[in-house]
């Protein structure tokens, strides 16, 4: 079995995508809905299966977050601050040959803090404490 067939079989096994409909330029994330935690797990398993160093992998260039946060409209999360780069079998195959995630990401800058998450936590804490105060005073 050729290495490309091993890769297609791996993608199929890990994602449930029929290997027959994959091609070298298939966008695994957006075309087949493999994103968020599912994509991160796929890339982790890929690195183990094919001995690819993924230390330089930056998830936010490839996938939206799985969770929805209303504060992302005010404070864009990392994936909304960069232009998305599709993950394709061609890309994964190339990295298999080099043994490294050899993708040169565009220059970018992310804020030091995730204000969308901080805002959500403050909101949930406020709602929780308000509920607790109402329950105690009732």
Layout of helices and strands:
Blueprint: H1 3-15, H2 28-32, H3 37-49, H4 89-98, H5 115-137
Helix pairs in contact: 1-3
> Biggest sheet, in brief?
none
Strand content: under 5%
Evaluate the radius of gyration: 19 Å
The H-and-E topology, N to C, reads as HHHHH
Q: Report how far the terminal alpha carbons are from each other.
A: 70 Å
Mean of pLDDT? 91
For this structure, the quaternary state is single chain
Please mark out the parts with pLDDT under 50 across 5 or more consecutive residues, or reply none.
none
Estimated structural class:
mainly alpha
Q: Which descriptor suits the 3D outline?
A: elongated
Percent in helix: 40-55%
Number of helices: 5
**Whole-number total of structural domains:** 1
Number of separate strands:
0
Task: Describe the fold and architecture.
With 138 residues, the protein is mostly helical. The chain has one domain (3-137). The chain is built from five helices and no strands. It has helices spanning 3-15, 28-32, 37-49, 89-98, 115-137. It is elongated, with a radius of gyration of 19 Å. The model has no long low-confidence stretch (mean pLDDT 91).
């Amino acid at each position: 079995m050729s290495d490309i067939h091993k890769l297609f079989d791996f993608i199929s096994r890990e994602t449930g995508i029929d290997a027959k409909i994959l091609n070298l330029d298939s966008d695994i994330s957006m075309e087949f809905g493999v994103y968020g935690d599912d994509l991160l797990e796929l890339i982790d398993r890929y690195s183990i299966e094919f001995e690819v160093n993924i230390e330089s992998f930056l998830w936010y260039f490839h996938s939206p977050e799985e969770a929805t946060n209303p504060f992302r409209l005010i404070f864009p999360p990392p994936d909304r601050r960069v232009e998305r780069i599709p993950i394709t079998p061609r890309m994964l195959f190339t990295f298999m040959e080099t043994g490294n995630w050899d993708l040169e990401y565009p220059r970018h800058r992310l804020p030091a803090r995730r204000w969308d998450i901080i805002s959500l936590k403050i909101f949930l804490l406020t709602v929780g404490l308000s509920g607790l105060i109402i329950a105690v005073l009732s």
